[in-house]
Amino acid sequence: MPSLIDEPQHFIMDQDDRKTNKNIPQQFTPNGLATFRNFLKSEYSDENIEFWLTCEDYKKIKSSFRLSSRAKKIYEQFIKAESPKEINIDYHTREQIKRNVKTPTMHCFDDAQKIVYGLMERDSYPRFLRSDIYRTLLENLSADATKG
């Protein structure tokens, strides 16, 4: 898979992270993440990154009441069949989460998050690196670096 180590790709990932995690969406800089999200929107698959980021925020919740409330919202938005931003996960995982949400923990979405992450890592992210959006980004960064 193409690397994000060489300049000017530093825009996409934080410096320390690109040394060890060459193609992991979670390590994006804010501008790199925005570019990747725009790419996913253009492919009608932005629910994947939205779910993944929502789960990362969910894991930071300390209040059990808030955890329960947020778990139900995540389930209704991303997990439930025919939900507005339904993610592509298998039936077994969907049913397990349905049970987990009844007594949620900070890890009740971990299996689905791993599946979605794998989809992005194997499918969306390599396509992003070959996309016109990414090429344009690199060209603009090269032009800015030359000017500056």
UniProtKB/TrEMBL annotation:
<dbReference type="InterPro" id="IPR036305">
    <property type="entry name" value="RGS_sf"/>
</dbReference>
<feature type="domain" description="RGS">
    <location>
        <begin position="30"/>
        <end position="138"/>
    </location>
</feature>
<dbReference type="InterPro" id="IPR016137">
    <property type="entry name" value="RGS"/>
</dbReference>
<dbReference type="InterPro" id="IPR044926">
    <property type="entry name" value="RGS_subdomain_2"/>
</dbReference>
<dbReference type="Pfam" id="PF00615">
    <property type="entry name" value="RGS"/>
</dbReference>
<protein>
    <recommendedName>
        <fullName>RGS domain-containing protein</fullName>
    </recommendedName>
</protein>
<dbReference type="InterPro" id="IPR024066">
    <property type="entry name" value="RGS_subdom1/3"/>
</dbReference>
